[in-house]
Amino acid sequence: MMQRVPGLALAGAGVAVSLGAHSALPALPPLVLCVALGVVLANLAHVPAAAAPGLRVAAGPVLKLGVVLLGLDLVFPDILALGFRALLVVIGVVAITFFGTRWAGRRLGISDDLSLLVATGFSICGVSAIAAANGVIDADEDEVAFSVALVTLCGTLAIVTLPPLRRVLGLDNEQFGAWVGASVHDVAQVVATSSTAGSVALATAIVVKLTRVMLLAPLIAGIAVQHRRTNARPTAADGAPAARPPIVPPFIVAFVAMVAVASLGVIPDRALLRIDDLRTVLLGMALFALGTRVNVGRLRQIGARPLVLGLTSWLLIAVVAYAGVRLAWA
Length: 330
Description:
The protein has helices at residues 5-24, 30-44, 52-70, 76-80, 84-107, 112-123, 127-137, 141-168, 173-183, 187-194, 199-214, 216-230, 250-264, 269-291, 296-302, 305-328. The chain is mainly α. The protein has one domain (2-231, 243-295, 306-328). The radius of gyration is 19 Å and the shape is globular.
């Protein structure tokens, strides 16, 4: 246990610095800063060997616990209040974006893991979804960093590009909020974008966005099943076949359980705020740990094609979400 302390302390320090920078400059997303700090430390300084055990824990169990706590942001009544047609639109937007991005990734010759991370991040909830998917497939750290950079870039661009399009596209406040919630990646980016059209747009955007987040559970479960089928059965140290991982990852089962608990309304609002803070710290520690594994030299070798994939996925979800809003919020 004690051998994990240096790495966990280092990850915690990275989160503290990121939160401090976010407090001074709120436009800087703290989770993205955690990745960046990890990358900077690994490539410009040195990660102590003693920190390795703790950083592995941060990138594994700590990451999964952070994803589990994300479920407490969701409640079933709010999701069902959207209505059947709107729910179908949200599901359709996620499915088309995910599979369309995967198809585009293959056409561009991008690695399967990288295109999967981009597809998951753009279709669901940005950095948190990328982290959850990586908890199943254990992708190369450079590809995780690239995926985080892409989803952050496009989500930030949405804040400045979508509001001017509201009147051009003939959207009222509720429709604009639904469009933002269905197409923008990170929750903070959704809030920043939709709030430009007032409280109705903001409320609609948050409910639609959290409905997309709810789809994280079945999507990650599907990724886990596919990953189990396409990868050879692992072997133990003695050469005998090792036990396969479970079809549905336990942390996804726990995520759904947290949604059920939140829907009961038994957790006080003050406690939920503290849990949100804890979740940010846990995910920040995990992303910092992943950042420390990134080799910038290898990152450059990935090339410009992932950028094309990210922009394509961003355009795809914006167009599909707009069409869905026109159908469900007419």
